[in-house]
Specification:
Helix content: 25-40%
Strand content: under 5%
Number of domains: 2
Keywords: Cell cycle, Coiled coil, DNA-binding, Metal-binding, Nucleus, Transcription, Transcription regulation, Zinc, Zinc-finger
Radius of gyration: 38 Å
InterPro entries: THAP1/10, THAP_Znf, THAP_Znf_sf
Family: Belongs to the THAP1 family.
Number of helices: 5
Shape: rod-shaped
Number of strands: 2
Subcellular location: Nucleus, Nucleoplasm
Oligomer: single chain
Organism: Rotaria magnacalcarata
Structural class: mainly alpha
Length: 159
C-alpha cells in the first residue's frame, strides 16, 4: 500500500526524503492529532500517515548511534509528539481570490452612460450602409441602387 500524508497528500516514493508517521494508538492523543490536523472526518486511522513536514524538528528523536546508517525512515517521533498547527503553513500555500462588487451607483453617471450608448448606437447606424438610411434621400438611392426613388426600390423587391 502506498503511503500518503492525510494532510498534504504527499506520497512516499523511493527517492523521497520524507518520513511518514502513524497516528498514535492512544485514543486521546489520536483525537488531539485529528483536531490539530483538521481531519475529524477520519474514523479509522490505522492505515493513515502524516509526513514529517507537519512536525517541528524538536518532535523527533536524535539518533545517537553513529554506526547506524541513516535512511529516509530513520526519523522517529518522540512519545507524545504533536503535529504543528497548520494555520500558518496553509495560508502561505493557498491563493486567495477576492470578489469586488459595486456598492455605490450614482444615478447621474448611469444616465450619462445611457446617453452615450444611444449616441454611439446612432453613429453606428449612420456609418452602416442599409437601405433604411436613405429612405428620404432619392439622390443616394439612385447612386447606390440605380432606382429613381425608395418607393420604386421597395416596389421592385416586393414583387
Amino acid at each position: 500500500m502506498v503511503k500518503r500524508c492525510v494532510v498534504c497528500l504527499k506520497q512516499d516514493t523511493r527517492s523521497a526524503t520524507s518520513s511518514f508517521h502513524r497516528f498514535p494508538v492512544d485514543k486521546n492523543l489520536q483525537q488531539l492529532w485529528l483536531t490539530i490536523l483538521n481531519r475529524l472526518d477520519l474514523t479509522d486511522v490505522s492505515n493513515h500517515r502524516v509526513c514529517d513536514s507537519h512536525f517541528n524538528s524538536s518532535s523527533f528523536k536524535i539518533n545517537k548511534n553513529k554506526n547506524m546508517l541513516i535512511t529516509k525512515n530513520s526519523k522517529r517521533l518522540k512519545r507524545g509528539a504533536l503535529p504543528m498547527n497548520l494555520v500558518a503553513s496553509t495560508q502561505s500555500t493557498k491563493s486567495t481570490c477576492s470578489v469586488s462588487t459595486q456598492t455605490e451607483l450614482d444615478l447621474n453617471d448611469l444616465s450619462n452612460l445611457f446617453e452615450k450608448l444611444s449616441l454611439y448606437e446612432q453613429k453606428i447606424f449612420r456609418t452602416t450602409i442599409c437601405i433604411e438610411r436613405f429612405r428620404d434621400d432619392d439622390t443616394n438611392i439612385k447612386y447606390f441602387t440605380g432606382f429613381r426613388s425608395y418607393n420604386m426600390f421597395c416596389l421592385v423587391f416586393e414583387l
